Amino acid sequence: MPTPQEFLEMSNRKSQKILVIDDDALFLEAILDLLEENGFHAIGIQNSLAAVKTLKQEVFDLILCDIKMPQLNGYEVLMAVRQDPVIEKTPFIFLVAERPDSDRRRAMELGANDYLIKPFTTQELIDAIKAQLERY
Predict the structure, then answer these.
(1) Domain parsing of the chain, residue ranges
(2) In CATH terms, is domain 4-135 a member of 3.10.50.40?
(3) Do residues 81 and 63 make contact, with C-beta atoms less than 8 angstroms apart?
(4) Whether 80 contacts 52, CB under 8 Å
(5) DSSP secondary structure string, 37-94?
(6) What pLDDT, on a 0 to 100 scale, did the predictor assign at position 97?
(7) What is the pLDDT of residues 27-78, one digit of tens each?
(8) What whole-number distance in Å separates Cα of residue 130 and Cα of residue 101?
(9) What residues contact 131, with CB distance under 8 A and at least 6 apart?
(10) Which is it for strands 62-65 and 41-45: parallel, antiparallel or unpaired?
(11) Which of 6, 74, 103, 113 is the most exposed place for a label (fewest CB within 10 A)?
């Protein structure tokens, strides 16, 4: 049973909307379940082009995104976000398979707020999300 403080935190999270973009259906479903279990309102999209379109129509408090995807890769999604004055400040976290340091550098240069390498723990993900939401 959650403590009163944990209950308050979870109630506050429900009002925060997170977009998860990943072409891997199983991974996407697992992340959505994990976020819901931790009190977040999360929406998942497998198609990166559809995700960019959705970002022009809906406001999200945070974006979680894979890098390697068909159509638009994660860098292109990030660039679309950072070039749109309405959503440019939305926190953006990459969730990626192991990548070289050059990919991490590029992500940060393009304006990513964080970069988690799979597999990560539930606590690592929740801590990264909370840190970004507290900043913005």
Answers:
(1) 4-135
(2) no
(3) yes
(4) yes
(5) HTT-EEEEES-HHHHHHHHHHS--SEEEE-SS-SSS-HHHHHHHHHT-TTTTTS-EEE
(6) 83
(7) 999 999 999 999 999 999 999 999 999 999 999 999 999 999 999 999 999 9
(8) 24
(9) 114
(10) unpaired
(11) 6
